[in-house]
Amino acid sequence: MRESTFPAMGSTAHVLVVGGPHDLLGRAAARIEELESRWSRFRPDSDVSRLNAAPPGQAVEVAADTLLLVTRALEGHAVTGGAFDPSMLTQLVDTGYGESLVDDLASGGPVVRSIGDPGPARHGDLSHEFVVDADAGTVTRASALQFDPGGLGKGLAADLVADDLMSAGADGVLVNLGGDLRATGTGPDGGSWHIEVEDPRDGSTLAVVSLDDGALATSSRLRRRWTDGDGNEAHHLLDPSTGRAAATATTGATVVARYGWQAEVLAKAAFLDDVRPDDVFTLVEQLGAAALVVTEGMVLPTARWADFVVTPPA
Amino acid sequence: MDDTTTPDPTSPGRSARRRPARQRPAARTRLAVTFGSIGALAGLTAGLALDGSSGSTETAAAPDPAPPTAQEVARPAEWDEEEEDESWLERIGAEVGARLAGDEGEGESWLERVGAEVGERLGEYDEDDDDEGWGTPVPGRSGGEYPQTRSSGS
After folding, report:
1. Does pLDDT of B23 surpass 50?
2. pLDDT tens for residues A124-177?
3. Does A291 touch chain B if contact means CB atoms closer than 8 Å?
4. Which of A80, A213, A295 has the highest number of chain B CBs within 10 A, making it the mutation to test binding with B?
5. How many of the other CB atoms lie within 10 Å of CB of B61?
6. Binary contact (A207, B152; C-beta < 8 A)
7. Same structural domain, A304 and A245
8. Cβ of B6: how many Cβ atoms within 10 Å?
9. Per the CB < 8 Å rule, is B147 touching A208?
10. CB distance B145–A289 less than 8 Å?
11. Can you give the residue range of the structural domain that contains A1?
């Protein structure tokens, strides 16, 4: 098995490859950089930045990867009833996330930023707000709403890179982008892929998940957080019903699904669960996924979660 | 932690929640059953017409009526789910029988045309039902190297 670790998408990429040509790690790094250059809202020439800068009604030509990104984001919004909302960039910036934050700031000193009160997200069908024309290769914003794929970009990137490496001849691949990962094919030594899930409360190991083919994503409010001058705290996981950082007892949510983008969508929805009138555990189970939600006092698994947990050797 | 390996008894309320916004298996099943019933009725009626027990070969010269579209045979939206099924089927059956009686010799092609249209529309319905087909992750096995990577949240 070969592996590499490098900074990417505001976090750390960890790529593991079993078998195949020797240049696959370099191929993975190049593909991740390509996707980040198209999807980052912090790069003014990215597809996402150009889309958000264009006047409403103007079709913006984007890469096929970006058409897929927008399509998946709209699907995530629809299937979660709006809990996953890719139209909250304005709220995110007003809340204080206008500049990039990297993962390791969570363990460093406090980040001080102004925290506004931007108001709730719009509701309804976002497919009328972000119109994808696959034949023309364009996306059009219908109004002033801005597009932000959030963590879905990492999950989908993990999917695309893993598929690409398998197509290039790998026997097995695991692509981990800041905790959103996809694992497929043969694991090391012909076994399965094993992923350690961090306890968001204290950084210890909460569980070890074993996958032969699937994805895992974790949303935590202890990452990408900041405070204002008055001691008020905020984080990057916004509640669409308020437009503010979710005020919840949930500290983290981990979801196992078939694909990385799905895991990310459901993890976000599961994280918001206890601040919404209904929760997503039934949704997670109906979609064949499994979830583990961690609050300050409890650990709540869905019924199928135990299928993926293994006990490490002593 | 061991408490992650078994369902948590503190979470009994986390069930029987809302269903996914775009899942419509019941609607699709109903639609499929509906069109299946149409086909059965049409076949039955055609059989009756051709063996002479009902209908007449003398009507074969009548103008070929235009086949009903799927929209024409689709159940009106305002009809309630279960109560009206029988009368609705009776009405469709009567319509199919009448058209077959006036379509002698071309009944098979008429059924093929209607069937193709219905099949096409059902196919469109399936394609639109895109929250199905998310797939399921495949659990791994114990053993081997632990762990290979870590998920600490984003």
Report:
1. no
2. 788 888 999 999 999 999 988 899 988 899 999 999 999 999 999 999 999 999
3. no
4. A213
5. 9
6. no
7. yes
8. 11
9. yes
10. no
11. 1-41+151-178
- Looking at the structure, tell me whether residues A198 and A213 fall in a common domain: yes
Strands, E, within A106-249: which ranges?
Answer: 130-133, 138-141, 172-177, 180-185, 193-198, 205-220, 225-227, 233-235, 238-239, 244-245
ipTM of the complex: 0.83
In this structure, the number of other CB atoms found within 10 A of the CB of residue A141 comes to 22
Amino acid in the structure at residue A72:
R
Say whether both A101 and A173 belong to one domain.
Answer: no
Query: Least CB-CB distance to B137: which of A215, A254, A311?
Result: A215
Closest CB to A300: pick one of B11, B19, B140. B11
Task: Output the pLDDT for position A131.
Answer: 95
Chain B from 110 to 139: CB within 8 A of any A CB: 130-131, 134-139
Global pTM? Answer: 0.67
A14: exposed, middle or buried (Cβ count in 10 Å: 0-12, 13-18, 19+): buried
Query: What is the enclosing helix (H) or strand (E) of A13?
Result: strand A11-18
Whether chain B has a CB inside 8 Å of the CB on A193: the answer is yes
CB distance from A218 to chain B under 8 Å?
yes
Same domain, A102 and A224: yes
Residue A282 lies inside a defined structural domain of this protein: yes
Interchain CB contact of A199 with B (< 8 Å) = yes
How confident is the model over A253-301, as pLDDT tens digits?
999 999 999 999 999 888 776 544 346 788 899 999 999 988 888 888 9
CA distances from B118 to B38, B70, B151 (A): 10, 6, 48
Which tops the pLDDT comparison, A79 or B144? A79
What chain B residue is nearest to A173 in terms of C-alpha separation? B148
> Cα separation of A73 and A83, whole Å?
11
Segments in A14-140 forming alpha helices (H): 24-39, 47-53, 64-79, 89-95
**Which residues 135-154 of chain B have a CB within 8 Å of chain A?**
135-154
Q: Is residue A186 part of a domain?
A: no
> In the prediction, which pLDDT does B111 show?
61
Can you tell me whether residue A60 is helix, strand or coil? strand
Q: Is A287 on the interface with B (CB under 8 A)?
A: yes
Assess if residue A249 is contained within a domain: yes
Across the interface, do B15 and A256 touch by the CB < 8 Å criterion? no
Residue A127 has a pLDDT of: 85
Q: Does A134 touch chain B (CB under 8 A)?
A: no
Locate the chain B residue with the closest alpha carbon to A280. Answer: B17
CA dihedral A309, A311, A313, B1 (to 10 degrees): 120
In-domain check, residue A129? yes
Mean pLDDT taken over chain B: 51
